[in-house]
Specification:
Chain lengths: 305, 277, 355
């Protein structure tokens, strides 16, 4: 086939891809088309991209220092041209603190995702592939964790481990893996007895190799959707822990802790507590919109829901 | 024979993202107090014809007709409320599979009574008595017991009898049966058809029997309409089916296996684009 | 219908009874293991605390032989499995230890504060269901319309907004600026001496006492936190209602109901919603459980003297017995609600009912 005669679109959408790469790109193109048609999902993606850009370039974008303020001249200033979002009780520019705080938010969601998702994936695929009593025991443990109140349990964990953003991340991760295990197990059960898995087994692949190389990759896409949808909840839990003084400790510019410290001034200097809340709202809304859009794009069956 | 239903140039179309899909494209027929069969493969527009007469076309669908008259009532002009008052009371419809077409969380008795009390101001005891009579009329041996059962507790044949009871309890003049036996076991199909036959005859109803099964329709109906791609390709009395001229009808007839005839090669249904014009 | 089924022979009845017994036994196993799992986790948390529980009781400066004696009295010298056994035994008897902060047994404290939390969560769930179900139905019936979009956005914001922040803003606007509602707390101080709690649910108590002044005051205190929790519950309930209703409205029995000539109102509320109600019960129960949990943050903002505030106060004072006791109580209620919603599901859906 003469590739140069095809447009790029035709090349992507061809029924007979010449290489694995072409097939993958083609599928990605179709998925992207479905995703991009959803305006709200694109907005969500832009919000998250914006968050990432803010986090990476925080030192360049923040107009002031997030830690040191001018206690003499700029305490509790309302929003104006110099301080777009006002200043807090220590004279620090709230916008700069929010920009630096995006790093903490991103750190929380990324770390929780890379702890909880692989844990759930491992438990779910092993349970689904092994079956029998391994499955029964692992799923019972998963169900037990699912029946717990997540936030309260995270609180108790942090209380035991001591306050701090690291412990908050561990506590949230420990309480978030069970849904991923359930999803991974369900996906594993559907492919477990398929012919191509049997073929791999007949070639002498060990169970670990089958689970790691052939089953786990198949679970990834539904897991990504679920993790994205959970991100908003993770951000809210982390902010809640910060608000209660159990997450990031001052003077770190964590958004939940910023709300807590602005609480004293809520009556007269409302912006100190209000601005970080808006930041949390926008970012978790972004994750929710993105997650909804991803679910609809990756799983056309569920899109009507 | 008085005309019960007069349909002239009925059209049903659905706008979709890729263009307008025309499900029914100019169907005309009249119906007296007789049994009319409509036959065609799936997608031929037979079901949408029935639903348009009922007024159950999905909301985004568009209907037009030169004439759509039931007992002198112009259905194209009738308001939504007027059409609703006709449904169940004067025109009724039986759906394909009782497993899905009966409300799973309502007892069979209540579903029958609901039809009745929607259209007639009857008391509780009177409604119950008539529902039980109706269950007996569809040859259910123990109406009292079936009355209190939920749809999942009865067999498919029993469920379809309950469906017939539910639709006929208010005494309609026209019944549209959309594949009423396709979901049933072969052994129960004949029972249900027998019940339907008796009720239609006894009550002098008009019947539109929609099916993909040409033999079944021809043995059960007085007249047969064959539809293809939203149009009527042939209309003829059931008794003269063997004289059918249209190649599509002949194709449908030839699909049926006969004992003692060489079936090699298996005939394939011919679909020519010019029939759809 | 087969003749065998009509006569209902004894063997079939036996088999059904056996199936029922088996499902009850399954329930018991699930509840017991879940509860043991919960206790194992709280036990584990209690043991990994950096604060030595013995030192917390006797104080830092106690001589070492006193520390050792108390350690033995409390059983901390025993192997872990024995300690766990004693722990489970204690918890099952309602013994969560003593609160360092209040010096009361934790169980006594929780009994005092828990009704406040339940009252708030109940008001929230009632508000959430009363508005969420109709909104979800509306969104499903008018799918794709402006109303659907608005319900969707309202729901998504509810999923995304930090509850403690919204609570602060609500206090600022409706209490401090507009003066429409009362501020933090459960009731005004003036009533504290005249008001006699009976059930611990103050709204109910005020009605029982026919104390209408107190009732008005309690309502004006609960309306903000109650609506706030109600909004969260609404976000969840309306979204799930919409999805269940869309599923039901596409079913064949809806076509049949239209063919019978029923009105749209009757079809939507009497047929489709009646079917959607079966899974909705689970959703409402889960949202109630979620509100109990959300109370931890809401109560802190509104100074609502419930379990959530009790837990956060104890957290700040490293009062682990109280924190873990509160965790166990909320966990137990979660398990109970899960169980209850399962039972309700079976009762509402004739298909799962054993006759």
């Amino acid at each position: 086939m003469n590739e140069t005669a095809m447009t790029r679109r035709e090349w992507l959408l061809t029924d007979r891809p010449q290489s694995r790469l072409q097939a993958r790109l083609g599928r990605a193109y179709v998925t992207w088309g479905r995703f991009a048609a959803n305006r709200l999902a694109v907005i969500g993606m832009l919000i998250i991209l914006g968050l990432i850009v803010l986090a990476i370039f925080a030192p360049l974008l923040a107009p002031y220092s997030p830690y040191v303020g001018d206690l003499a001249k700029s305490r509790l200033l309302p929003p104006d041209a110099a301080h777009w979002l006002g200043t807090d009780d220590q004279g620090r520019d709230i916008l700069s603190r929010l920009i630096y705080g995006s790093r903490l938010t991103l750190q929380v969601v990324v770390l929780v995702a890379i702890i909880a998702a692989p844990l759930g994936l491992l438990v779910g695929t092993v349970a689904g592939y092994a079956g029998g009593w391994v499955d029964a025991v692992l799923m019972r443990i998963t169900d037990i964790f699912l029946a717990f109140p997540k936030l309260v349990l995270a609180l108790a964990f942090v209380a035991a481990l001591g306050p701090g953003i690291g412990n908050a991340i561990i506590a949230i991760a420990i309480t978030s893996w069970p849904p991923y295990a359930r999803i991974a197990r369900a996906e594993t059960l559907t492919v477990r007895n398929s012919d191509y898995i049997s073929a791999v087994r007949l070639m002498g692949a060990s169970p670990w190799r089958i689970v790691l190389r052939h089953i786990m990759p198949l679970c990834i896409s539904s897991l990504i959707v679920r993790v994205t949808l959970d991100m908003a909840g993770i951000i809210l839990t982390a902010a809640g822990l910060g608000f209660l003084g159990l997450g990031a400790q001052p003077p770190l510019p964590e958004w939940g802790a910023m709300i807590a410290s602005g609480r004293r001034f809520i009556l007269d200097q409302w912006w100190v507590a209000a601005m970080p809340g808006f930041a949390i709202l926008i970012v978790s809304l972004g994750f929710n919109l993105l997650g909804d859009g991803l679910r609809d794009a990756l799983d056309p069956r569920g899109s009507s829901q | 024979m008085s005309t019960l239903l007069d349909v002239k140039d009925l059209r049903v179309s659905f706008p979709t993202r890729t263009g307008v899909v025309e499900a029914v494209r100019g169907v005309s027929f009249t119906l007296g107090r007789e049994r009319l069969g409509i036959v065609g493969e799936s997608g031929s527009g037979k079901s949408q014809t029935g639903r348009a007469i009922m007024g159950l076309t999905p909301e985004h669908g568009r209907i037009s007709a030169e004439k759509l008259e039931f007992n002198g009532i112009d259905l194209t002009r009738a308001s939504k409320a007027e059409r609703r008052a006709l449904r169940g009371k004067r025109i009724a419809m039986i759906l394909q599979d009782p497993k899905y077409s009966l409300n799973p969380v309502m007892s069979i008795g209540r579903q029958i009574i609901e039809t009745l009390r929607t259209h007639e101001p009857v008391g509780r005891a009177e409604a119950r008595r008539r529902a039980l009579d109706m269950l007996a009329a569809v040859q259910i041996r123990d109406p009292e017991r079936v009355f209190g059962l939920y749809p999942h507790e009865v067999s498919g044949g029993m469920g379809q009898r309950a469906m017939i009871a539910m639709m006929l309890v208010a005494g309609p003049e026209l019944l549209i049966a959309d594949e009423p036996t396709s979901a049933l076991d072969v052994t129960v199909q004949l029972d249900v058809l027998g019940i339907l036959h008796r009720l239609v005859a006894d009550r002098g109803m008009g019947l539109i029997f929609i099916s993909h099964d040409l033999r079944l329709v021809s043995s059960f109906c007085d007249r047969v309409i064959v539809m293809y791609a939203g149009r009527i390709v042939e209309e003829l009395p059931a008794s003269r089916l063997s004289e059918a001229e249209h190649p599509y009808t002949r194709g449908l007839l030839n699909c049926m296996p006969k004992i003692g005839v060489d079936r090699h090669p298996l005939p394939v249904l011919d679909r020519r684009p010019e029939w759809a014009l | 219908m087969s003749t065998a089924e009509r006569r209902m022979p004894a063997r079939r009845a036996n088999r059904r009874a056996f199936a029922t017994l088996k499902s009850i036994a399954g329930f018991v196993v699930v509840v017991a293991t879940t509860y043991l799992g919960l206790l194992a986790v709280t036990f584990f948390i209690g043991r990994v605390v950096p604060i030595d529980p013995v030192l917390a009781i006797v104080g830092d400066r106690a001589p070492s032989h006193v520390v050792e004696r108390v350690r033995q009295e409390m059983g901390f010298n025993l192997p872990y499995y024995q300690q766990f056994f004693l722990y489970v035994k204690g918890v099952l008897q309602g013994d969560f230890g003593t609160s360092v902060l209040t010096t009361n047994p934790v169980m006594t404290d929780i009994r005092r504060v828990f009704p406040a939390t339940m009252e708030l969560a109940t008001v929230g769930t009632v508000i959430g269901a009363a508005f969420g179900i109709p909104l979800g139905v509306l969104a499903a019936v008018r799918r794709g319309s402006l109303a659907d979009q608005i319900v969707r956005i309202v729901g998504l914001v509810g999923y995304s907004v930090p509850i403690f922040w919204l609570g602060l803003l609500a206090l600022l606007v409706f209490y401090a600026r507009l003066g429409w509602t009362s501020g933090p707390g459960r009731m005004d101080v003036v009533f504290e001496y005249t008001f006699t709690p009976i059930t611990g649910f103050f709204l109910l108590d005020a009605i029982l006492n026919r104390d209408w002044a107190a009732f008005r005051d309690i309502v004006s205190h609960i309306v903000l936190p109650g609506s706030l929790l109600g909004y969260f519950s609404l976000a969840y309930i309306s979204r799930m209602t919409r999805s269940f209703m869309l599923n039901e409205l596409s079913q064949e029995y809806i076509v049949a109901a239209r063919a019978k000539g029923l009105s749209e109102t009757r079809i939507i509320w009497g047929h489709a919603l009646r079917n959607a109600a079966v899974p909705l019960v689970t959703v409402i129960a889960l949202s109630y459980a979620g509100l109990l949990e959300g109370s931890v943050l809401t109560e802190t903002v509104f100074a609502w003297p419930g379990l959530g505030l009790y837990i956060t106060n104890s957290l700040q004072n490293a009062d682990m017995n109280a924190v873990l006791g509160g965790t166990i109580v909320i966990g137990s209620v979660f398990i109970a609600i899960n169980l209850l919603s399962d039972v309700l599901y079976r009762m509402l859906d004739p298909r799962t009912r054993t006759r």
